[in-house]
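G.,

No rush on this.
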Amino acid sequence: MKKWLIIILGILVAVISFMFDEKIIQFVSLFRNNILNEFFLGITFVSSEIIIFFFLTSLFLWKEHKRRWILPLWLTLFLSVVVSFVLKFGIHRARPFQQGLVSVLPILEKSSHLVWNFSFPSFQAMLAFCAVPILAKEFPRFKYVWIIFAGLVAFSRVYFGLHFLSDVIAGGLIGIVLGWAMIKLEGKYKFGEKVLKKFLKK
């Protein structure tokens, strides 16, 4: 029931933000300054796919009895890539700076053109939030730190004019749903546990 409530509220907030996306992105851009630019550039770097992948994998390797969740985690990250790719090319929404609504740092503009070039949904937000359900299950105390990090990742995309607010809300929500789905699949089929046992026997 709680999960459905989160999904419904997430969709509602995404729809409402979609109606005011242009005004929101322009309002957020007013708060840009050198200090925040450097801070969110750091967040952007740390939230790269490779760093998140290796950090989360190392976290689960650190606790031996949690290693069964490494494969489900990898699959969740992979599904985020696939789902984001399909939606981006299916919807073709231009990024805020491409629509001339806000400016963007040259370094970010160049990299954004290399990553599929479409705005909806935010892949970075999806990638960060898809790990939340598994982390909440296996590292309850750590989940709040990760949620804050994921929130900063999502906001940084809006701050720099790379995504609209509805893009990051939708990306985060889809990521969380993918994480929940993977937990359910692992609980039912225990494929992560089975693969780990086979690997340890070799």
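When you get to it, here's the other one too:
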Amino acid sequence: MKNTDRRKFIKSFTTGIAGSLVLPNLVVANDTSISKKWPRLKEEDTEAFWEAVKEQFVFAPRLRYFNNASLGPSPVSVQKAAEEFRKTLDGFPSKYMWGGWQQKKETVRENVAELFSVSKEEIALIHNTTEGINLIARSFDLKPGDEVILADHEHPSGTIPWEVWQESRGIKLVRPELPILPKNKEEIVEIYKKAITPKTKIISMCHIVNTNGMILPVKEVSKIAHEKGILVAVDGAQSAGMFKIDLHDLECDFYAASSHKWLFSPKGVGIFYAKKESQHHLKPLMVARGHTDSSIRRLENYNTRNLSEILGLGAAIEFYDEVGQQKIHQRSYELKSYFRSKIEGNPKFKLKTPPNDELSSAIQVVEVLGKNVSDVKKQLADEFNIDCRPMTGFNLNALRFSFAIYITKKDIDELVTILEKIA
């Protein structure tokens, strides 16, 4: 976000808000000394910097949270902003629900668009990824015999909408099988290429699969698809915020993401991108007054909404920008590399996420050999207060760890020590 845009953002968010609100500088919950160090630390990329970032998140006592891929926390500054917005809304409900915050909402849209390097006219502010995939799957008047490609690693929320809205009408869902540990992205591209037939109309794919953290080659698949007149929809639930994303460069037609994971927004807020040239395919899931709006805003028209959470997304984008998009991108890969360096070569463990940086980032999955993953998960929770996700599908029998920006190298050292003890 440019400095002028940041000032515009801060001004728009602080105007008309009851009480005091600290934005955008990071709010430290327990250690004001770090707050004083922030002007110096923010120019660095050191462990001290990331320790300061960690202080912005407040977890339950003794909890070690490695489960960001399931649901992310909001930093203190975002929590405070959302709470102030709620108070303001309750103080004058009709004013702020219907028009009083219209420009502020548009500022959020602009800042989200800038984060993903697209136009604000290509961004809708929705509830979550599931809503976005439903919106896409329900929009098309496909005919019996038409085909939609959905690889076997899609999240249930990425497959069920297609099953309900399209397969039930006779559309064929093609389910190619992806390898757990591909050697390179070309291996995955070839699988999608072989799945395409003259009847293929849409490819719906994850950017990062939730099963083992594998990144799928959206850009390469989109190029192949568009050469054949096929549309590409992307489930970006696990990628949005983990690393830098230019949605125009990805070349997909649609991209849906939940901002309450790697962007740390309030819960129940999502982002939907539709390429300008592809928006005419889409129909709103809900219709109300204004449904004839030709802009992308017709896709988010619910009449009443929890606008406090939408504006809270704006505060989350501001927090994200304060930390630094490029720093977060690099940190995601740095933590991945650091964790793998501690695990690789140890005969007690087997990594089940591809090592190539083109194929994985801050989600890593590891099996404790000879142990049932459910038992290990329980032991981690009961004895060590570690929350992570056990993955049992695809014969993984492995633990999924999320290395978000509040995870430090010290946290990883402690995690690996505990895993070795259990093993």
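The chain has two domains: 105-318, 326-422. The CA atoms of residues 16 and 88 lie 8 Å apart.

Enjoy the weekend,
O.
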